[in-house]
Amino acid sequence: MKYSSPYLGRLSSIRDGHHPDILQRLPRQALCGDDGQAISVYGCDFWCCYEVSALFLNAKPFSVVLSFSVDRSSKFLVESKSLKLYLLAFNQQRFETVKDLLCCISDDLTACLEVEVSCCLEDTSLWSSVIPSVYQSLDKVDEFVCMDRPDISQLLYDSTIKAKKKVYTQLFRSLCPVTQQPDWATVFVDYEGALIDEASLLSYVCAYRTKLDFHEVCVDSMYRDLWGLGVFDSLTVSASFVRRGGISISPMRSSALISRFVYRDFRY
Questions:
Q1: CA atoms 254, 257, 263, 267: torsion sign
Q2: Poorest-confidence range of 17-31, 74-88, 118-132, 144-158?
Q3: What's the whole-number mean pLDDT along residues 26-45?
Q4: Which of 24-28, 127-131, 139-143 has the highest mean pLDDT?
Q5: Are 17 and 214 in contact (CB under 8 A)?
Q6: Is 200 strand, coil or helix?
Q7: Do 187 and 172 form a contact (C-beta atoms < 8 A)?
Q8: 3-class secondary-structure state, position 226
């Protein structure tokens, strides 16, 4: 699919003020190849915006970190560069309170995406830069098979052994489908079911290294491939992408409806 946007791959001027028309949306079904009903999947796209700033009525600046989630069942994605330009335009805009800014952004995103979006402030004092110890790193496995593209048929597993595991890798990379710039992420896989050979799982995830796709589509693809094997009782695949332009995207897809979680490492 070709991506049409007034901002992607182009130089863009910064506008001052409240301009909801800057926001651009992309069709989720056309990008992900399904409407979310053909597979058992729940999830959301968790966005964290680190460089949100505006002015109080007396012109004193304030800066906050805000977040919002877009449900996986939504018809549209928000295009990240348009979101960055939209937020930058608020830098000289005055608000009576921080809450007024949050409400303004929530209303604009809801109108753009045609799904309820509620922005909230992040309490950065609670953030941890340490990945929980219950997760086991895949990055030190000795065996590795180079793949030209992600091929789930190469994944090895033992259906005679039932396992419950949490694993992650910091070696994931994909490419922006517009700029072809690298997108780095930490990928987390939580599963119950057949025991996965960790070397082949790492090989599969790393095969996305030359794949041109958006963050959300990559995580959708990994979840669909793994769940489609039919050997898991439960599965969650998530990815925390390194932020660009002060914005991070952390898609999560799961076989069960669970609370969102985002783990950050030293790169964030």
A1: positive
A2: 118-132
A3: 77
A4: 24-28
A5: no
A6: helix
A7: yes
A8: helix
Q: What is the C-alpha R_g of the chain?
A: 19
- Annotated catalytic, 48? no
Q: Is the pLDDT confidence value at 257 over 90?
A: no
Cα separation, 203 vs 259, in Å, equals: 29
- Backbone torsions φ then ψ of 173, nearest 5 degrees: -145, 140
205: helix, coil or strand? helix
CA angle at 19 for the pair 17 and 24, rounded to the nearest 5°: 145
Residue 81 contacts residue 10 (beta carbons within 8 Å): no
Q: For tokens 């805009």, what's the residue?
A: 93
Tell me the pairing of strands 182-196 and 157-175. antiparallel
Q: Which of 104, 176, 225, 265 is catalytic?
A: 176
Residue 223 dihedral angles phi and psi, to the nearest 5°: -65, -50
Buried b (16+ CB within 10 A) or exposed e, 61-80: eeebebbbbbebebebbbbb
Question: How far is CA 193 from each of CA 137, 155, 170, 232, 233, rounded to the nearest angstrom?
Answer: 19, 14, 23, 4, 5
Q: Are residues 212 and 221 in contact, defined by beta-carbon separation less than 8 angstroms?
A: no
Alpha-carbon torsion 110, 258, 189, 42, what sign? negative
Active-site pick, 45, 108, 183, 213: 183
What pTM did the predictor assign? 0.75
Query: Cα separation of 50 and 88, whole Å?
Result: 11
Q: What is the distance between the alpha carbons of residues 34 and 127, in angstroms, rounded to a whole number?
A: 34
Q: Is 176 a catalytic residue?
A: yes
Task: With H, G, I as helix, E, B as strand and everything else as coil, classify residue 161.
Answer: strand
